[in-house]
């Protein structure tokens, strides 16, 4: 992976909590964040005494490299958000300016935590569909803004293999959003559900109290116990 091809864009603890409908009971579970990138969820939950591990292919880079790339990407993304602002719901995040501040705060918290987190085994340079963890090592796995969202780049077989792998390492898996980048339901969703049904993995579409991308109001929940 080349750093110039990386588009790091991280969300906050509060957004994760809303995106995945995380209760206090959930937050006390052992959690795997898959594709977390520069989100501050790990840093913030760790400060609260949580048990969380994050994996992402971008964790091969140093904090300094990621910080530099984040600054470049922010200057690219914010103008795009202004152009495409009608594709989003500006309620919990009131404006593009507020979005930039929220995202940068989250990513700065990630950067400040990254080196210590790597040393303590909270950040791993790994990526789906193959993870190094033991079977059912985690009670809960979260996959934010990767599967389904990037349906043009991640094919159906990779989706199925990735979700099966998440179910191997965690008792419960939550994936959000179910829309692809074009704002439509992912073309892979129905076939993924059929494949999960075929191997006996209980799954359901669950409403969440979060919406930023218009129409992104549900997560896929898969249970392997």
Q: Strand order across the biggest sheet?
A: 3-2-1-4-5-7-6
**Which sequence of SSEs, written as H and E, runs from N to C?**
HHEHEHHEEHEHEE
Helical content class = 25-40%
Radius of gyration: 17 Å
Determine the N-to-C terminus distance. 35 Å
CATH fold-level label? Rossmann fold
Q: Would you tell me the overall average pLDDT?
A: 95
Shape: globular
Task: Quickly name the level 1 CATH class.
Answer: Alpha Beta
Assign the CATH superfamily: Vaccinia Virus protein VP39
pLDDT < 50 stretches: none
Largest sheet: 7 strands, mixed
Task: Give your account of this protein's structure.
Strands 3-2-1-4-5-7-6 form a 7-stranded mixed sheet, with helices on both faces. β1 (30-34), α3 (41-47) and β2 (51-55) form a beta-alpha-beta unit. It is built from 7 helices and 7 strands; from the N terminus they run ααβαβααββαβαββ. The protein has 225 residues and is an alpha/beta fold. The protein has a single domain (3-223), classed as Rossmann fold. The radius of gyration is 17 Å and the shape is globular. The mean pLDDT is 95. Helix content is 39%, strand content 17%.
